[in-house]
Design goal:
Helix content: 25-40%
Oligomer: single chain
Strand content: 5-15%
Order of helices and strands: EHEHEHEHEHEHHE
Largest sheet: 7 strands, parallel
Number of strands: 7
Distance between the termini: 27 Å
Length: about 260
């Protein structure tokens, strides 16, 4: 079977958390689809590769820039969106940057929870608001895609803090979709399952082991952990004209985790 083919040659796409993992894979696929890609992250060096994402896109003949960005700081998010103006303005805003905190409610560190709330909730709020305001100012409505999680819907042991933040992403997505529909801006989310990335040190091996050995709360029906390349097609679909009547929706990419 072939991959989704899409033409984003007239579009500028911002991907936060685009240096590594899912964000890197998403940014590179938009680059393959001829979009101008702005990679936003705290550090341009990837956790899981040697060559920075924007450089890989350029080496493949695409157009890409890196903008150092702390998504918890409004001024930095505004600077990021302003950088897209050089290329006509942001058409697709992918709010992907995230922070993981794992602990039971009895042991959850308050400072770690606050960081997760700052990045996973406040960061998505800022990215959505600033991008939408810029689209309206330019009278050029676009698309906003948030990275949610299976944790947006289901609790997992020792993940109460992370689950809470991703549950908030679910409602930020749906509420924003309602508010922005009259302006022609669509807001959706992709909800990954167990994905083998270096989101947390050692997570790639742990996710693979748990998914393949039955060490999760319930088995993954497709029998494996996901990999970053399993995700980008969902983002491209939601950003495309094929999804022009889709807003406030979640696309689960989880190997069937939601099925039962």
């Amino acid at each position: 079977m072939g991959r989704l083919r899409a033409d984003f040659s007239d579009d500028t796409v911002i991907v936060t958390g685009g240096a590594s993992g899912i964000g890197r894979a998403v940014a590179m696929r938009f680059g393959e689809a001829d979009a101008t890609v702005i990679v936003a992250d705290l550090d341009e060096e990837p956790k899981d590769a040697e060559v920075p994402t924007h450089e890989v896109i350029r080496e493949s003949g695409g157009s890409a820039e890196f903008v150092e960005t702390d998504v918890t700081e409004r001024e930095q998010v505004e600077t990021l969106v302003e950088a897209a103006r050089e290329f006509g303005g942001v058409d697709v805003m992918v709010n992907n940057a995230g922070f993981h905190v794992g602990a039971s409610i009895l042991d959850l560190d308050e400072a770690a929870l606050q960081t997760a709330l700052d990045v996973n909730v406040h960061g998505v709020f800022l990215g959505t608001q600033v991008a939408a305001q810029d689209m309206l100012e330019r009278d050029d409505p676009g698309v906003i895609i948030n990275t949610a999680s299976i944790s947006s819907n289901l609790a997992q042991y020792d993940q109460v803090g992370y689950d809470a933040t991703k549950g908030a992403v679910r409602m930020l997505t749906r509420g924003s979709a309602l508010d922005l529909a009259e302006h022609g801006i669509r807001v959706n989310a992709v909800a990954p399952g167990q994905i083998a990335t270096e989101f947390v040190e050692g997570w790639s091996e742990e996710a693979t082991e748990k998914a393949s050995s039955g060490g999760l709360i319930k088995p993954v029906p497709l029998g494996r952990a996901g990999v970053p390349d399993d995700l980008p097609g969902a983002y491209l679909y939601l950003a495309s004209e094929d999804a022009s009547y889709v807003t406030g929706e979640f696309v689960h990419v989880d190997g069937g985790w939601q099925v039962f």
